[in-house]
Every structure is written in structure tokens, then in C-alpha cells.
Amino acid sequence: MTTPDTASSLPMDPPAAASPRRQGHAGDAGSSSNTGHAGHAGNSRKRIRVIDAVILLGALAGVAGIALGLLAPSRAGMAAGVVIAYAGFCAAVIGRHRQRHARAGQLSEARDGATVVAYASQSGFAEQLALQTAQALQDAGVPAQLLSFDQLEAGRLAHCRQALFVVSTTGEGDAPDSASGFARRLTAAAGAGGLGELRYGILALGDRSYANYCAFGHALSAWMQRQHAQALFDMVEVDNGDAGALRHWQNHLSALCGGAEIADWEKPRYADWRLHERRLLNPGSPGAPAFHLALVPAAVGQGAPSWQAGDIAEIGPRLAPSEVARVLAKLSLDGDTAVRCDGASTTLAQALATRIVLPDPHLAALDGVTPQRLVDTLPPLPHREYSIASLPGDGQLDLLVRQTRHDDGRLGLASGWLTAHAQPGAGIALRIRTNRGFHPPADDRPLILIGNGTGLAGLRAHLKARAVAGHHRNWLLFGERTAEHDAFHHVELAAWQANGVLQRLDLVYSRDGGPLRYVQDAVRASAGALREWIEAGAAIYVCGSLKGMAGGVNAALADVLGEEALLRLGEQGRYRRDVY
Ligand SMILES: Cc1cc2nc3c(=O)[nH]c(=O)nc-3n(C[C@H](O)[C@H](O)[C@H](O)COP(=O)(O)OP(=O)(O)OC[C@H]3O[C@@H](n4cnc5c(N)ncnc54)[C@H](O)[C@@H]3O)c2cc1C
Ligand SMILES: Cc1cc2nc3c(=O)[nH]c(=O)nc-3n(C[C@H](O)[C@H](O)[C@H](O)COP(=O)(O)O)c2cc1C
């Protein structure tokens, strides 16, 4: 599905040979779609190369100046050294600044079918993240165009298929200056419902210590919904530069690029866990295998891990041992060779298991490198996210993982590691990401839980939390394929029904004969009861597939409750989603 290829040779990127991108689109960015801009692109590249040279020369001059200053026998020599060092470092700093501008200039060139990456930034952070976002898409073979909000011309969005917005909030919940005219101009260009063709994602930067947290992001999100633009995923809020939220954004980028392995901007600091139990939940299912996994902390006595219902486990995957053996054989290297990797001593085989492997032709070019150089050259594998299906009080961290299989038969990177390659007892690199947007309600209001497939993971943690809190007004609507093979955790659900934790349970199986029926159909079929629960103050939590389920459920809820009422529930935190 995704075939990494060599990528950009921009100086701040990982080494060119180590940066992956999809082959299928690699040509798009540089060939037909670029023909009208080939001259600009070529000029930008030349400029970047010249700036690279200036930075290098500046840095060398700086170092030479310091050496001269330290070694010169006379005061004049020392002074000359200091001046050369100062000039050299100034050249390097200015070069870096120009380099960023040149790179932004290159990314802002128009490309046919490009994903627009638009930023609204007051002090530069959103701009920097937008630049990284556009660069990551380009490197993965997805053409991108980087624009500031004040460069977004009226009508641009109406003619664009996909856009990513990176926006901060400033003042007292205000839009950054560059975005102040945005809503006015675009509302004039496209009336309500005018962006039905646009798919979009929002990264909202803010700080929880302000009263109007991420207010501009929320205003933009509500406006997009009113324009009937289709959300690619739910808005990602970043509280004070939170690294976990940024990795979540990257995870979405990776999925947008068809699963391209985009190395994490900031690697999670994983803790060591152990695979305690793995059980196939759906033998005989017409769908892909889904597994219940139980993990426990590797070190006994290590501080008890803590999380809440709704939180996410970030998993550091490892390559299959057969893949590591193949790479070692190809490069004629010994897997037992001692190397340093991520600050620790390990073997080459262990280190390689955590690295993005280049496609064969590029791998062959690495023939003859030392084992250490190989480890240093290959970027670390990206993380993957999984909804946590249990509570700390259970003494284990449960996951519900569907095995992904690519068209060529390869298992998915992380789901392959978790469901097939890792053996019971194996170490699992895991970090818990707080997912505030999907935490339980603070009070005992009724809860309507809606989901499908592995989405039961997040909903199960909520039901467990409600059982512990003694809040029994819960209604679960859950969809899978067949009652016979896909009734995940049915014994537990039946027990919750029997003891009153679940007041209502609607199970919908799409392939049990008769017309296809999905969980959104159950929402529509229960319109009256749903309205009653909402009138009684209920909150709605949705977990599971973005494709098909989340959109279908959203449409069904809008039909049953009304579009404006659903928007208001979202604004009040009574409609929350964890969909992927
Ligand atoms: C917040 C969140 C919570 C999640 N919770 C769960 C969970 O509880 N359980 C669970 O099983 N998953 C969950 N996921 C999905 C999970 O993170 C991974 O995306 C999934 O396991 C596949 O990853 P992988 O590394 O195995 O596959 P990869 O090899 O990395 O493939 C990556 C992606 O490429 C896509 N893909 C695969 N084949 C094709 C193809 N032929 N064409 C186009 N695209 C393709 C798939 O969508 C896949 O997700 C969650 C995701 C998010 C963002
Ligand atoms: C003067 C000022 C006002 C801010 N006001 C808000 C606010 O109302 N709400 C919020 O969520 N964040 C607020 N923030 C936090 C910023 O949104 C956050 O720091 C963001 O990362 C800045 O991104 P930028 O550099 O792209 O502008 C404010 C920050 C500053 C400096």
C-alpha cells in the first residue's frame, strides 16, 4: 500500500536516504502537477542549496574563528579570531532564518490537487507547525500548499478538496491578526453549506489557563460544520505545546498519507510494558481478526500507571523478526553486534527492529555502512494509537486491536506487532496519552455510548468507570458484523445489563441476513428515546471508525436532534468523539 521512497534533501530533514514517502505520488509533486511552477520550484531549490552552503561556510568560519582566537599568540590574532567567529555564526544564524523562509516559499507554490495547509499564527508556533505539516505531506508524496490565512483568497477553499488548518488563539479568545478578515471574506464567498466538497482537519493551539481555550479553533470548526465541509478527523487541541497532542496530529497525517511512515517529530518516551494475555475475539468472523490484549507494567514496584477512561495508549511498534533478519542478510551484518540506540546499549538486531527500513534499492545503497552508522541513519518507527479498554483498578491495561493487512499480504506495522509478532511475555513500548476531550462527564448525567468494531475499547473503559462511580443511566448502541462471531465481550455486556449498569443495550449486526443494518440505523430507530435521554441531560460519546460509522452516526443524530442542537451539544461538551 505504501512504498517508501527517497525523499527531500532539505538540510534539516533526516538524511535523504532515510526519509520515506509514497512512491505512487512521488511523481505528482514534482512532475505534471508542477509543470507550471517548475521554474519557481527549481529556483527555490537552488536558493535552498545556496543557503545551505552559506550556513555550512558560516559554521566553519565560526569554528575556525574560535580556534584562531584560542590559539593565536597575539592579542590582535585573538581579536581577529573573535571577529571571524562572530561573523561566521551571524552568517549561520541568518542563513537558518533565510532557509526557513526559502523552504516556506517552496511549499507555498501552487500545486494541482494540493492539500492546502493554512495557518493563523500570532507569535509563530502555528506557522512552524504548519510548515512541518506541509513538509511531512510533501515528503510522503501528498502535494501540499502552505498558506497564511491572509493569503487565503476568497473562493480558494471552495475549489480545494482537502485543507488542514493550524490555528492559534490570542488576546481573549480572538483570532490571530492574520485571520481577522478570514471569516468575513469566506462567508461572503460561500454561503452556508458552500463547502460541501471540502475535507478538512484542524490543529487548534491554545492554553488552558485562558478562559476561552482554543476559541478560534472552535469558531473555525463550527463555521466549517455550518458550511457542510467534512471533517477528516476531530479537531486536535494542543494545550501549551503538548507533545502528545502533536503526535496525535502526526498520527492523523500518517493516515492521510495512506499510512506512510512519518517519523515522529518528537518521539514518545515509552515505558516498558509486558504482553500478559492475547485472545482472538472473533474466530470465524467475515471481518479481519480482532484481539483482546492485556498488558502489565514490566517492572514490579515501578510507580502504578494512571489513566482515565477515554485515554489513549501510544505503542512503539517493532518490526517482525523475519524482516530484521532479511535486512541483516541483505547488508551482510551480524545482528548480535553491539550498538547504541536511543541512548542505550543494545544489539544491532534489537535496534533495527525499531527503525524504518528503506525499500530495497535504497537499502542496497547502504551496503558497507557500519552497524552503528546504519542505526544512526534510519529514523525511528512512528507510534500508533489505541483506545485503552480498561481502568487502572483492573490491574492491567486492555486493548482491542484489529489486525490490519495490506494489499500485498504484509501485516500492519503496529497491529502486526501487537497481534502476531510479539509473543506473550514480550516487552511492549507504551506511553499513555491523556485524551481530555473523551474523559467521562464530571457528574452523573445519563450517558449514550455509540460505536462499532474496536470502538468498543473506549466505550468499555467508560462503562467500567460508570460502574465504579455507581452511575447507572447508561445506554450502549454497538455495531459489528455477525452475532455468531463478532459479539465482542458479550458476557461482560450481559452482566452489566443484568446488574443495571447498562439500562439499555442495542446490538446491531450488519451481516446477519436481511437488509444491511448499521449502528446509525439503530440511532434513527430509537429517535424518541434518544430525544428523551438528551432532554434529561445525557451526553453522547462515540468511538470507532471514522469512515462509515462516525459520519453516519453524526448524520443520524443531526436528523433526530436537529443540526443546530447537535452543534450546541458539541459546544457544551455533551457530544464527544474518539474516532479514527
Ligand atoms: C485515537 C485513535 C484510537 C485508535 N484506537 C484503536 C483501537 O482501539 N483498536 C484498533 O485496532 N485500532 C485503533 N486505532 C487505529 C490504530 O492506531 C492503527 O491505525 C491501526 O492499528 C493500523 O495501524 P498499523 O500500524 O497496524 O497499520 P499500518 O501498516 O501503519 O497501516 C496504516 C494505515 O493504513 C491504512 N491502510 C491499510 N491498508 C490500506 C490500503 N490498502 N489502502 C489504504 N490505506 C490502507 C489503514 O487505515 C491503517 O490504519 C486508533 C487510532 C486512533 C487515531
Ligand atoms: C497574549 C496571548 C493571549 C492568548 N490568548 C489565548 C486564549 O484566549 N485562549 C487560548 O486557548 N490560548 C491563548 N493563548 C495561547 C496561545 O494560543 C498559544 O501560546 C499558542 O501556542 C500560540 O501560537 P502562535 O505562536 O502560533 O500564535 C494566548 C497567548 C498569548 C501570548
UniProtKB/TrEMBL annotation:
Region annotation (Disordered) ranges: 1-43
Record carries keyword Flavoprotein: yes
The keyword Flavoprotein appears for this protein: yes
EC identifiers of the protein: 1.6.2.4
Record's keyword terms, sorted: Electron transport, Flavoprotein, FMN, Membrane, Transmembrane, Transmembrane helix, Transport
Transmembrane stretches, start-end: 50-70, 76-94
EC class name: oxidoreductase
Pfam families per UniProt: Flavodoxin_1 (PF00258), NAD_binding_1 (PF00175)
GO molecular function: flavin adenine dinucleotide binding; FMN binding; NADPH-hemoprotein reductase activity
GO annotation, cellular component aspect: cytosol
UniProt domain FAD-binding FR-type: residue ranges: 268-441
UniProt xrefs under PANTHER family: NADPH--CYTOCHROME P450 REDUCTASE, NITRIC OXIDE SYNTHASE-RELATED
Protein name: NADPH--hemoprotein reductase
Source organism: Cupriavidus basilensis
